[in-house]
């Protein structure tokens, strides 16, 4: 198949498109994605190879399924693939692309990205929020302790959502209470994660046959009102001089916007601030909570690993205190557990979609301009060529003596992506995921409910913005520290 046969301009010496399954008119290959697209795309990639061409509705799409191919798209030609395709949710919910995650590549995105990496998500800023996270963890341990005394079953999935919500709201807005807005944010996350026909067949977008855009507009109004109110409150309190250590994300952005010294160097306005806050709410809560949920599930399914993690915690931390974030770097085995869990369960198995900015030839294949690029990080993490025959097995020891990390330097492990569009919050995310897991496994022993055997714990997935467990993770805690007051 040549690009010209898909409506592209006729060119001399055109290279062929990458191979891929034949589609049907209008829908292309959309109907082949199924309920878990990362798994369906893997089946096709086995037949058509690591660079595969499909059509999602009218959108030419390239699916990348090996570490070598991922390196070509995310490193060698990173610049060309650093844009994002336009999506309906950005238009209706994200202030028409005024944030970071959905913005097309260009000076606007570069500027906002710089703001996020230099002002909001720096290692220093992550460190500054440590007391707040410690406080949130203390509250969590207290409530699980009460459940332990009553021998209650705890819904670990709901519990991680709650503590992550608490940490994220406090980091962004200083306040942790969110009763009035929580369900609307959850609805926004759900709608953004839904498959929206308008993203693939543009003229269908205006008809909105699934009613998603209408619902997006409704939640957008409620969220906008909430964010306006938060910004107003912060402006009213601006006279209360805060030290840099005490500033939440809204304070930081407002001070940059009003700074006389730096003359609003990022060109911020209220819609920018609201769009960035929404990106952080959406990008920050579900992803980290889901990563913790999978890490917990794997440890519960593998008592050998649980025992080894707890032995490490006993020897590094001791039984007379809770874990402190300063301990994390010494918890070598737990860090391997986190990596191994992210290898098998990248919460964004297809990362976020990229878009090509120009026509390009890669490995002898023509990659048309404005193609959607999907990186299947899920299949890359399970490739037996790189991870050996036991690639499907949860085996943290595979990282012993290697320097493979999750930060985008190794194209065989890409839970946060790599290159220009990779996650800007890796340090924050790893800190949060590791401390919550460490604390819960240090303070408590856990048993599956109703005598369920570890091997019977199901690991079914549910597709969405983050791919989480289909069924909540339930377990009964027993307090194991030798202190009574936290
Ligand atoms: C375990 C937790 C997390 C995981 C696994 C994760 C993963 C990812 C992935 C896969 C991408 C897309 C990369 C690509 O397109 O190639 C991404 C982008 C992004 N993430 Fe994260 N993330 C996590 C936590 C967070 C947190 C805590 C925040 C903010 C507070 C955040 C904010 C963002 C933003 C704003 C982007 C878009 C960047 C851009 O388009 O330039 N993420 N993340």
Descriptive key words:
binds protoporphyrin IX containing FE; four-stranded mixed beta sheet; 17 helices; single chain; 486 residues; Cytochrome p450; alpha+beta; three-stranded antiparallel beta sheet
Tell me what you see in this structure.
By secondary structure, this protein is of the alpha+beta class. The protein has one domain: Cytochrome P450 (Cytochrome p450). It is 47% helix and 8% strand. The chain has 17 helices and eleven strands. Strands 1-2-7-4 form a four-stranded mixed β-sheet. Strands 3-11-8 form a three-stranded antiparallel β-sheet. It has a two-stranded antiparallel ribbon with strand order 5-6. Helix 6 runs antiparallel to helix 7 and helix 13 packs antiparallel against helix 14. 44% of the residues are buried. Protoporphyrin IX containing FE binds next to helix 12 and helix 17.
The pLDDT mean sits at: 93
User: What structural class is derived from the secondary structure elements?
Assistant: alpha+beta
Bound molecules: protoporphyrin IX containing FE
**What is the CA-CA span between the terminal residues?**
66 Å
At CATH level 2, the architecture is Orthogonal Bundle
CATH topology: Cytochrome p450
Give the overall shape, derived from the CA principal axes: globular
Fraction in helix: 40-55%
- CATH superfamily, by name, is Cytochrome P450
Largest sheet: 4 strands, mixed
Classify the beta-strand content into a percent band. Answer: 5-15%
Strand sequence of the main sheet, in spatial order? 1-2-7-4
Ranges where pLDDT stays below 50 over 5 or more residues in a row are none
| H/I helix tally | 17
Specify Rg, calculated over alpha carbons: 23 Å
- How many DSSP-defined strands? 11
CATH class: Mainly Alpha
Number of domains: 1
* SSE arrangement, N to C: HEEHHHHHEHHHHHHHHEEEEHHHEEEE
């Amino acid at each position: 198949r040549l690009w010209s046969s898909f409506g592209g301009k006729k060119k001399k010496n055109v290279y062929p498109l990458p191979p891929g399954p034949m589609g049907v008119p209008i829908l292309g290959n959309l109907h082949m994605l199924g309920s878990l697209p990362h798994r369906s795309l893997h089946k096709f990639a086995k037949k058509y190879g690591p660079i595969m061409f499909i059509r999602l509705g009218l959108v030419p799409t390239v699916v990348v399924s090996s570490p070598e191919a991922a390196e070509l798209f995310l490193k060698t030609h990173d610049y060309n693939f650093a844009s994002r395709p336009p999506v309906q949710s950005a238009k209706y919910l994200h202030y028409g692309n005024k944030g970071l995650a959905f913005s097309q590549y260009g000076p606007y995105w570069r500027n906002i990205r710089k703001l996020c990496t230099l002002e909001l998500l720096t290692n220093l800023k992550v460190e500054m929020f440590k007391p707040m996270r410690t406080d949130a963890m203390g509250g969590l341990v207290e409530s699980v302790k009460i459940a332990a005394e009553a021998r209650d079953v705890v819904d670990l999935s709901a519990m991680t959502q709650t503590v992550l919500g608490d940490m994220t709201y406090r980091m962004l807005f200083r306040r942790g209470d969110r009763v009035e807005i929580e369900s609307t944010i959850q609805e926004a996350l759900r709608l953004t994660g839904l498959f929206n026909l308008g993203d693939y067949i543009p003229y269908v977008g205006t008809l909105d046959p699934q009613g998603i855009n209408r619902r997006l507009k409704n939640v957008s109004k409620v969220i906008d009102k909430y964010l306006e109110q938060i910004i107003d409150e912060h402006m009213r309190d601006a006279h209360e001089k805060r030290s840099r250590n005490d500033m939440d994300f809204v304070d930081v952005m407002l001070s940059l916007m009003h700074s006389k010294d730096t003359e609003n160097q990022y060109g911020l306005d209220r819609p920018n601030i609201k769009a960035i806050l929404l990106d952080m709410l959406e990008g920050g809560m579900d992803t980290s909570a889901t990563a913790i949920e999978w890490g917990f599930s794997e440890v519960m399914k593998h008592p050998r690993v649980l025992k080894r993690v707890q032995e490490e915690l006993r020897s590094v931390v001791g039984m007379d205190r809770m874990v402190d974030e300063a301990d994390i770097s010494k918890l070598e085995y737990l860090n391997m557990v986190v990596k191994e869990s992210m290898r098998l369960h990248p919460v964004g198995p297809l990362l976020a979609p990229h878009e090509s900015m120009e026509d390009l030839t890669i490995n002898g294949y023509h990659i048309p301009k404005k193609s959607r690029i999907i990186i299947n990080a899920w299949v890359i993490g399970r490739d037996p060529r790189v991870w050996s025959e036991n690639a499907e097995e949860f085996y943290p020891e595979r990282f012993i003596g290697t320097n493979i990390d999750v930060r985008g330097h190794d194209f065989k492990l890409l839970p946060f992506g790599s290159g220009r569009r990779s996650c800007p919050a890796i340090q924050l995310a790893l800190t949060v995921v590791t401390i919550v897991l460490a604390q819960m496994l240090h303070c408590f022993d856990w048993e599956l409910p109703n005598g369920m055997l570890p091997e019977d714990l199901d690991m079914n997935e549910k597709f969405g913005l983050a791919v989480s467990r289909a069924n909540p993770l339930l377990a009964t805690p027993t307090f194991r520290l030798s202190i009574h007051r936290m």
